[in-house]
Structures are given as C-alpha cells and as structure tokens.
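Q: Protein A?
A:
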Amino acid sequence: MENFLAGAPKFPQSAALGILRSSSELNMTREPKYPITVHFLEDAEIETYDSELELVTSLEWFDSSDPEWKVKVQDVTGASINLKVDALQVTLLEYKYLTNR
C-alpha cells in the first residue's frame, strides 16, 4: 500500500474530508464562473457574457461599483460579483461577499 501512495500529492486532512478550516480557504478556491450576467437597472436590460472575450469587447470600460452605472452583476450561480473592465481588460472579477465594496 505504501508504494501505491508514494507519488500521490499530500493534502491536509481537512481537505481530504472536504472540510474548510477557515473562510480564507474558501476565498482562495472560489472565483466567479461564466456566464456573467449584467442587469442594467435603469433600462431593465439584461446582457449575458459567456466568456472574458465577450465581456471585454462589449463593456470595454465598465465598473460595477460606480453608482452611475446602476447595475447588478452575477455569475452563473446567481451570486453577486464586482466587475471592472479597463481598456478591454478585466481588472476585477470577484464575489462581493469576499470584499467590503
């Protein structure tokens, strides 16, 4: 049995049991998943982006935390996220509950 496990990666026992010891472990493992949906609240328009390429080419300059945008951004699970696109690059894509924004 020992030879069989010799090359196997070593994980903390809590990981093997599927238990997270702290919220920081959760923060490190979770990131928003596509498709990303942007609800433009002012005109009730909803846009869904299946990839980062779609997102940056459609939004170009965008900041979900800017109150002028009046938007709600969610990932495929329906969780609220912070999204910022600057000059065709995603500079922020994270779950809102992980930050104080």
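Q: Protein B?
A:
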Amino acid sequence: MTDRQPVRQRFRRRDRQLSSVNKRWKAARLVAVGVLPVGGMFLAGLKAIDLWQGDPFPAADPVAVAHRLDSRTQAIYDALQLPDARLDPAWPGSGTKATVYDCHPRGLGNLSSVLSDSPPQEPGTAAVSTSWALEGVPAATAAEAMARAQQTLTAAGWTVTSYDVASADDATLRLRPPATEDGVAVRAGVTVYPRGDLKVFAVSECVRYPGGTVVDSEGTPRVPDRPDAPSQLRPRPTPR
C-alpha cells in the first residue's frame, strides 16, 4: 500500500491538471462563441450606420476642381488631334460653373426626401462643370478623332464608361479620368452633334467646399472666369 500511494497521488494530480485544462478550454470556447457574434453584430451595425448616413462628400476647393477639369478637357482635345477645328464661341452652355442644385443629402436616411419633388440641397456642397465646343468637324473626321481619343486616353489610365453611337453625327464617348488623392470623382467626354459640332465636357461630383469659400447669394461658389477653350484656341493677350 505504501508503494502504491505515490503512484495514486501522481495520477490524481494529473487528473486534476487535465480537468483544469479542460475547464479553461471550455471557458475559452464559450467566450469565443459569445464574442464572435457580438463582433459580427458590431461590424454589421457600423455598416448599417454608413448606409443610413451615406458616404461623406469629398472635401475640395471648387477653384482647384475647376482647374482640374480644365486640364481634363485639355487632355481630351490633345487626344482628338483636330488642329484645324475652330472653337464655337456661340455654343450654348459653354463655360465653367459651379452648381448647388444637384447636391442632395446622401444615405438611406434621406432617401424619401431626395425622391420628393423638391429634394433638399446639402449645405456647403457644390458640383463643378466645364464645357466648350468645336465647329466645322465633319462626321467622318469626328468619328476618327473619337477613336483616337479613346485609344490615347485609355493608354494613359482613363476608363471608358460608355460609348453610345446612334449615327455618324450623333455619338457620345464618356470616360473616367484616373483617380486623384482627394477622391473627387470626375466624368468627362466628347459628344458629336449634327452640323459638324463637337462638344468636350468634364463634370465633378458634389464636393464639400471649405469654410471661407467665396459664394454668391445662393451659396454657389465662384470659380475662375477665363476663356473656356483648349489652350491652343484661347485668345492671345494683346501686346501693350
């Protein structure tokens, strides 16, 4: 009996240790089982809040956005390779401008108001656009120019979002330029019209402009007042 006593004690200690390990393992599993659903619910809650509130408007200076749009339309003109085309000074709607009427609150929480007949404007936001047109571009020449622009710009990292061709003198090429650090999305493109007109345009998404931005009585930011045309076709300053 005396010889067996230490052996039994060792087995008992081992059983107690194994039992303790098993209890800790069961406790860890219970914690994991409880934490994982809670963590998943927390992440799902954050996602639901994002959907309800909507993505925030990117912050940007409308003047800087206007300069960027000018460079985008300049890139399109260079890619078209139409040195003989003339600027159409009477093209309706040409120019660079900021607008606030298309900037509405985002998110599912504002869906009903946005879908109403008079959706509210999001304070402190504006979209910027620029456009100008060339005249005297025959339909066949315009089609070749748009094909050149598509090839050149996509090679430079632009993405074609659509290319709608109803006829030789009724076509629109829409592109998305490469992303920028401020995250402001831009749409740009070329539209061919009958009678030899070809419009180049660029539009930004709505941005939240910084405090201190110069605005008019309706809260629309002021953007540069300059000739809206590619640099090659802008009026030369008169020598003094």
